[in-house]
């Protein structure tokens, strides 16, 4: 009897594998990419699916780099149709795409994301400059014309105007797109304000980047994982700590946390939208043009994403924390996206 | 004098040295017992804290706030030409009905911004509720009926006390005017809380009040079924062969060492293997429970083989010898006697292996099951996600209301794990035999 059960199970398995192998033609859009764009992409996917004409697209959260790798793996229907990115596609990635037969890509810019430094409401608000951020977080800083290992232990050491508490910053790990953007916008911006490093940048770009992009590893900067909710919880329980995360988490937790003023500008929705706040980046998604027409609904999905009710000033994506483009820019993005204008880098 | 006498007499177990040593040994034993007790207490306290933190934030996920509104199903909005054409009824703007109902309730609200806030009191799921009602009963058109609609997540958070009404207005997601409206509705008795059945019947959603774990539960179920169909027979066959038939030689020793090693390989490695074999070579669909199940089967196989071998080895040799002595072939001895006797142990091992697979996310990342999938899968090749992945995705969402959903989903997952393990224990107790 057992023999029979086993052989039955085997037959069932083989049959199911054979049956599933044929399911190649797709009627469902597949999207991969950045975890920062994930909440927006999924919100659009849900709205798109609930209209009832097409299946709800499947959105995977793989990170910007991982998404582009999958996206560029080939042009057949086993590869994703779109990828989200919290940074622009790199030249090397476009080349990799072309090598694998993905020639035409359409870039759609969807809006901005602000990166904030925040601490608990029970503590005094911070007022920082990019230079101070660099001094507090870089592994090596210039002191008296020489690069030395970061000697600053408290915020007061960095600048007398800052409170006398230990530097304790919770932030994303190097694998995160938020971290990339943070070091590029905040730390590099701060590093340039040192004359010595500005000169280094002119002389040796690589050496400058190594200094500007390296975060200290002596315990003052704590890598808190990719989960921003975790950072929020830790800030609540530790009033001395400062966290680095996306604006939407500050927006949702405004009763517990306050954003640090950076360069004299508060991290508010309006300030990020009109570009006054210094640490914000653009968000994108990329479309594989050859799949349009092969997988139903791609054009309609782009139309939904770039509609005013989604990425407009009062659209549902702003509710989720997306900071919209200006009206003129939105018009242009919409027109280009609908015409599937292929991407040209520089 | 007496002293010297004592010194002479007290030898053996009565000697001072021995008595002192005895006290020392007893002390040592007490210390050891105390340490053991402390270890257990620490473990229990930690477990208690974990469970308490999950349950205290999670139980509210099973209750949801609803707002009852008098909705007028105006023909002019949903069926302009009065044809009752199903396609038209499907595409109609039901949101407008909800908005009209809210406007009628609060006629003093007129500015655009305020209206937007007012409309956010009710979840955008409401339009779907109304559409389903009309599709079921087109006779509703033209009538005004009270309808219970899902409240927005912010309202829900206020009702459950997660948003502090006393804090300064600019710090709150729910503004004063919203609280005024909410209080007006509360006074009328229009706000009610009910068991959140949607949590168990809906797929994933970006709106916390709509999000449910049905998709993930079905995904987990399909995945585990595939894992069991593949891993159980192969694992048991391997174990029987290795224990009963395989000759003792270098090759089989090598296989044995490798199986033991495989059981300790980090699960992400199996994900990479699954990606390489099932997706890149076999071209099976991405994100499907089929591929997830196959990958997890690879991961569970060593556990099952090891457990099954141990169970087979525990069957006394006398049974084997008796069967062979009565003329049974080796195969008959294995399948008629050894296997039935070792089955409880094998099943226990299998279930423990499967509950391990139920909690796994890392290998699924590589094969695309860490994804937002709104539809509940209906076959094993539909895109799906599993429960631990759903927990991970919710824990990563910025909306405050997802915090309780995350804990709620953890409670459901823990429930399933306890059920499976309890089943394993019952099986063992029921069929176990001692020799």
Structure description:
The complex is a heterodimer of chains A (346) and B (435). In chain A, helix 5 (130-137) crosses helix 7 and helix 7 (177-191) packs across helix 9. Chain A has 346 residues and is an alpha/beta fold. Chain A has 16 helices and 13 strands. Chain A starts with a helix and ends in an 8-residue tail after the last helix. Chain A is globular and about 60 Å long. Chain A folds into two domains: 26-113 and 282-338, Periplasmic binding protein-like II (D-Maltodextrin-Binding Protein, domain 2); 114-280, D-Maltodextrin-Binding Protein, domain 2 (3-Layer(aba) Sandwich). In chain A, strands 1, 2, 3, 4, 8, 9, 10, 11 and 13 form a nine-stranded mixed sheet that branches. In chain A, strands 5-12 form a two-stranded parallel sheet. In chain A, strands 6-7 form a two-stranded antiparallel ribbon. Chain A has helices at 2-21, 38-50, 64-71, 91-99, 130-137, 155-158, 177-191, 195-203, 205-213, 228-237, 247-252, 269-273, 298-305, 308-311, 316-319, 327-338; strands at 30-33, 58-60, 82-85, 105-120, 127-128, 140-143, 146-149, 169-171, 221-223, 242-246, 257-259, 261-262, 280-288. Chain B is mostly helical and 435 residues long. Chain B has three domains: 2-59; 62-201, no CATH class; 214-431, MetI-like fold (Orthogonal Bundle). In chain B, 65% of the residues lie in helices and 6% in strands. Chain B has 19 helices and four strands. Chain B has helices at residues 2-9, 16-58, 75-78, 86-91, 95-105, 112-119, 126-136, 153-159, 176-188, 198-201, 214-245, 250-262, 267-281, 289-313, 317-325, 330-358, 362-366, 387-395, 402-431, and strands at 63-72, 144-150, 191-195, 371-372. Chain B has a three-stranded antiparallel sheet with strand order 2-1-3. The two termini of chain B are 63 Å apart. The model of chain B has no long low-confidence stretch (mean pLDDT 88). Strand 2 (58-60) of chain A pairs antiparallel with strand 4 of chain B, so a sheet runs across the interface.
């Amino acid at each position: 009897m057992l023999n029979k059960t086993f052989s039955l199970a085997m037959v069932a398995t083989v049959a199911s594998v054979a049956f599933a192998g044929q399911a190649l033609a797709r009627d469902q859009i597949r999207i991969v990419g950045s975890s920062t764009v994930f909440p927006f992409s999924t919100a659009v996917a849900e709205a798109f699916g609930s209209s009832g004409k097409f299946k709800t697209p499947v959105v995977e959260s793989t990170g910007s780099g991982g998404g582009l790798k999958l996206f560029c793996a080939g042009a057949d229907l086993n590869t994703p149709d779109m990828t989200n990115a919290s940074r622009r596609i790199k030249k090397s990635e476009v080349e990799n795409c072309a090598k694998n037969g993905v020639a035409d890509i359409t870039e759609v810019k969807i809006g901005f994301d602000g990166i904030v430094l925040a601490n608990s409401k029970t503590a005094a608000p911070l007022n920082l400059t990019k230079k101070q951020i660099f001094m507090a977080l870089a592994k090596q800083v210039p002191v008296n014309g020489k690069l030395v290992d970061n000697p600053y232990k408290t915020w007061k050491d960095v600048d007398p105007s800052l409170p006398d508490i230990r530097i304790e910053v919770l932030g994303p790990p190097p694998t995160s797109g938020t971290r990339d953007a943070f070091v590029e916008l905040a730390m590099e911006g701060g590093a340039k304000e040192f004359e010595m490093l500005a000169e280094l940048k002119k002389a040796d770009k690589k050496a400058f980047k190594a200094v500007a992009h390296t975060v200290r590893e002596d315990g003052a900067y704590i890598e808190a994982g990719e989960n921003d909710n975790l950072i929020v919880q830790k800030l609540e329980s530790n009033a001395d700590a400062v966290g680095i995360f996306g604006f939407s988490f500050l927006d949702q937790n405004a009763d517990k946390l306050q954003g640090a003023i950076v360069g004299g500008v508060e991290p508010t929705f309006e300030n990020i939208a009109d570009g006054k706040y210094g640490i914000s980046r653009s968000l994108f998604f990329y479309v594989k043009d050859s799949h349009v027409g092969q997988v139903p609904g791609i054009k309609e999905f782009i139309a939904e994403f770039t509609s005013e009710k989604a990425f407009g000033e009062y659209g549902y994506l702003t509710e989720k924390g997306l900071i919209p483009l200006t009206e003129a820019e939105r018009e242009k993005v919409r027109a280009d996206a609908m015409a599937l204008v292929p991407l040209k880098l520089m | 004098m007496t002293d010297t006498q004592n010194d002479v007499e007290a030898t053996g177990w009565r000697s001072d040295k021995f008595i002192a040593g005895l006290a020392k040994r007893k002390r040592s034993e007490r210390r050891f017992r105390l340490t053991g007790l402390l270890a257990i207490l620490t473990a229990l306290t930690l477990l208690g804290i974990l469970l308490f933190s999950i349950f205290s934030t999670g139980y509210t996920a099973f209750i949801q706030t609803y707002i009852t509104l008098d909705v007028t199903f105006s023909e002019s909005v949903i069926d302009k030409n009065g044809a009752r054409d199903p396609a038209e009824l499907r595409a109609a703007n039901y949101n407008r009905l909800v908005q009209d109902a809210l406007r009628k309730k609060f006629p003093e609200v007129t500015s655009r911004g305020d209206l937007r806030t007012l409309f956010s009191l009710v979840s955008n799921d409401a339009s779907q509720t109304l559409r389903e009602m009309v599709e079921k009963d087109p006779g509703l058109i033209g009538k005004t009926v009270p309808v219970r609609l899902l409240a927005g997540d912010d309202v829900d958070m206020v009702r459950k006390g997660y948003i502090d009404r006393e804090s300064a207005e600019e710090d709150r997601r729910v503004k004063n005017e919203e609280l005024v409206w909410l209080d007006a509705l509360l006074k009328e008795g229009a706000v009610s809380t009910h068991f959140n059945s949607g949590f168990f019947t809906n797929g994933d959603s970006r709106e916390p009040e709509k999000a449910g774990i049905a998709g993930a539960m079905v995904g987990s179920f399909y995945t585990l079924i595939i894992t069991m169909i593949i891993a159980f027979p192969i694992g048991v066959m391997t174990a029987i062969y290795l224990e009963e038939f395989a000759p003792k030689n270098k090759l089989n020793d090598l296989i044995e060492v490798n199986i033991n090693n495989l059981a300790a390989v980090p699960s992400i490695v199996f994900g990479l293997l699954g990606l390489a074999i099932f997706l890149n070579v076999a071209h099976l669909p991405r994100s499907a429970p089929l591929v997830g199940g196959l990958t997890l089967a690879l991961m569970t196989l060593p556990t099952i083989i090891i457990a099954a071998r141990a169970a087979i080895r525990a069957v006394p040799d006398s049974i084997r010898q008796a069967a062979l002595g009565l003329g049974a072939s080796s195969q008959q001895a294995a399948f008629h006697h050894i296997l039935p006797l070792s089955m409880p142990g094998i099943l226990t091992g299998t279930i423990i292996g499967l509950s391990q697979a139920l909690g796994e996310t890392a290998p699924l990342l590589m094969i695309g099951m860490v994804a937002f999938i709104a539809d509940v899968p209906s076959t094993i090749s539909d895109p799906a996600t599993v429960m631990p992945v759903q927990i991970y995705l919710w824990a990563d969402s910025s909306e405050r209301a997802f915090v309780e959903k995350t804990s709620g989903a953890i409670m459901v997952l823990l429930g399933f794990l306890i059920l499976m393990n309890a089943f394993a224990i019952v099986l063992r107790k029921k069929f176990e035999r001692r020799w």
